[in-house]
Design goal:
This protein is an alpha+beta fold. It is built from 10 helices and 13 strands. Strands 1, 2, 3, 4 and 9 form a 5-stranded antiparallel sheet that branches. Strands 5-8-7-6 form a 4-stranded antiparallel sheet. It is globular. About 15% of the residues are buried.
């Protein structure tokens, strides 16, 4: 884990998490292509469409990591905050030379079983990036039965020109964990993250719970968090809230109404048993207002009866289930 002193003196060092701005271009074959950028205006000028959900501005970056080729990562070591540099890299120091033996053929059945092809938003086309047996490649041709994948880096055999600027070093533990999630999986803004007394807690958002890509990224995230901030325990929490069925609510209301109606009926039966008959000959008629008041009294009693029949199930709106995985950092052997 990088020391606190090295984080603020002598520029960015291997293992530091920083926020980085950059523009990366590939040159060769009589053309210049934009590889990647953190600037929206640069992408627009190059007529490169933004991917869905793309964000612009400085991005989390691990110095000496695997995001850029080794030669480019090495060139970032020592950059000071706010310092902007532009460098050129030969193919051997960037994406390497092209190798025709790295173009391979796979059956459509094999490709359809890959984790990235089982996502809800999966789409297979020319240029789709696949990970097969730990190698990343691009689809160059496909038929109904076969897919040809090129495992050469997309810009192999071409010179690379880059412009880089380190904005800041990410030092707060919560920010470091969020940066690691963004680097290894994405959607980091949707995770609830806390770090308290050497315990890291990640609450997984709903749409990531059953995402195969999240399941594949989780071990790498846990390993990187252990390396970066050395916590005692890492908790990965998934919460599942059980909704109340609408039909069950209506059934409860109907049942209450039936019970309250039954509570009113014995009153008439008791009067009949005692021989009381308000409509018998010679019996004085009740004034209209008095009858109205009696009816009002019944309505009030009806309300009390309904309240009296409330059950514990009526008070419980939802069921709540929570699960969490705890990953303790092993001590030295």
């Amino acid at each position: 884990m990088p020391s606190e002193t090295s984080k603020h003196h002598g520029g960015a060092q291997t293992g530091h998490l920083v926020r980085l701005e950059y523009d990366l271009w590939a040159e060769g074959g009589g053309r210049t292509d934009l590889i990647d950028t953190t600037h929206e205006e640069v992408a627009q000028a190059a007529n490169v469409p933004a991917s869905p959900g793309a964000t612009w501005g400085p991005r989390p970056h691990l110095i000496g990591g695997e995001y850029f080729p080794t030669g480019i990562e090495t060139a970032l070591v020592g950059l000071k905050h706010g310092e902007e540099v532009e460098k050129e890299f030969a193919p051997a120091d960037a994406f390497g030379e092209r190798d025709p033996n790295l173009i391979e053929l796979f059956s459509m059945h094999e490709v359809s079983r890959l984790p990235e092809m089982r996502r809800e938003d999966a789409h297979l086309d020319i240029g789709t990036v696949l990970t097969i047996e730990g190698r990343r490649g691009r689809v160059v041709t496909l038929t109904q039965a076969r897919v040809r994948v090129d495992f050469n880096p997309p810009f192999a055999g071409r010179k690379v020109r880059g412009k880089f600027k380190v904005i800041e070093t990410i030092s707060e533990p919560v920010d470091q964990v969020r940066a690691i999630v963004e680097l290894q999986y994405g959607r980091a803004a949707e995770f609830h993250i806390t770090v308290h007394e050497k315990v890291v807690t990640l609450t997984v958002p709903d749409r990531s719970k059953f995402d195969i890509s999240w399941m594949a990224a989780k071990p790498r995230i846990i390993d990187r968090i252990r390396t970066q901030i050395a916590p005692h325990t890492i908790k990965v929490v998934e919460e599942y809230v059980t909704p109340v069925p609408e039909k069950a609510e209506k059934s409860d209301k109907t049942e209450k109404g039936e019970k309250s109606d039954k509570a009113d009926k014995p009153e008439k039966g008791e009067k009949a048993a005692k021989g009381e008959n308000p409509e018998a000959e010679g019996a004085p008629e009740k004034p209209a207002e008095h009858a109205k008041g009696d009816e009002h009294e019944k309505v009030v009693d009806h309300g009390k009866s309904a309240e009296h029949h409330k059950t514990p199930r009526d008070e419980k709106a939802v069921g709540h289930e929570k699960s969490s995985d705890h990953f303790k950092t092993p001590g030295p052997q």
